[in-house]
Design goal:
Mean pLDDT: 96
Order of helices and strands: EHEHEHEHEHEH
CATH architecture: 3-Layer(aba) Sandwich
Shape: globular
Distance between the termini: 40 Å
Largest sheet: 6 strands, parallel
Strand content: 15-25%
Strand order of the largest sheet: 4-3-2-1-5-6
Low-confidence stretches: none
Radius of gyration: 16 Å
Helix content: 40-55%
Number of domains: 1
CATH class: Alpha Beta
Number of helices: 6
Length: about 180
């Protein structure tokens, strides 16, 4: 069984303040291409921690793929602590709830509400240990909160030969150009 953790930027970290932003379409397309490739390589589960942005987009893409052609693909949400959405804006809470309602498995690594950043690190370690590959929408040129997961994954890779796949801004640019080219013909 092959398991992938998918994570990356939160919307505000890359200047996205609207779910309908055109950039979201291209980000989800990049995620879709990677998931499809991994499913062909035996991927069965996608794990996320339920953060807004890349993780919820990835879950939405996975749900679309379940309906379209990969009914056996599963999504697990492992939150770092209880009630992580407590202080989120109402629209983000609703988005999160929509994703949770379709998840195949939901749990919290820490069985307490937020106490300190160690819960986030513990969650990242848990996700890495439970997976075979990390798909990360992240670019070292533009740091974001995903840098912590990225650095942990690199350390883990040194011990466990853990696979790290990246979606970078140049990957997104290639997808934009490819799609625009295809629209012309």
């Amino acid at each position: 069984m092959k398991v992938a953790v998918i994570s990356g930027y939160k919307p505000y970290e890359i200047g996205i303040f609207n779910k309908q932003d055109e950039a979201v379409f291209y980000i989800k397309e990049a995620i879709r291409k990677n998931i499809e490739m991994m499913v062909e390589e035996g991927l069965e589960w996608i794990l996320i921690s339920g953060q807004i942005g890349t993780e919820l987009w990835a879950a939405e893409v996975a749900y679309e793929l379940q309906t379209e052609k990969y009914p056996n693909l599963k999504v697990g949400v492992f939150t770092p602590f209880l009630d992580q959405e407590l202080r989120w804006k109402e629209a983000n809470k609703e988005w999160y709830e929509e994703v949770l309602m379709q998840a195949d498995y939901i749990d919290s690594v820490s069985k307490k509400p937020y106490e300190n950043p160690s819960q986030l690190k513990a969650n990242n370690i848990f996700l890495l240990q439970k997976s075979d590959v990390l798909l990360l929408f992240y670019d070292e040129e533009k740091e974001g909160s995903s840098k912590y997961l990225y650095h942990l994954a690199k350390q883990y890779n040194e011990k466990k030969d853990y696979e790290i796949r990246m979606i970078t801004f140049s990957d997104l640019q290639s997808i934009v150009e490819e799609m625009q080219f295809n629209e012309q013909f």
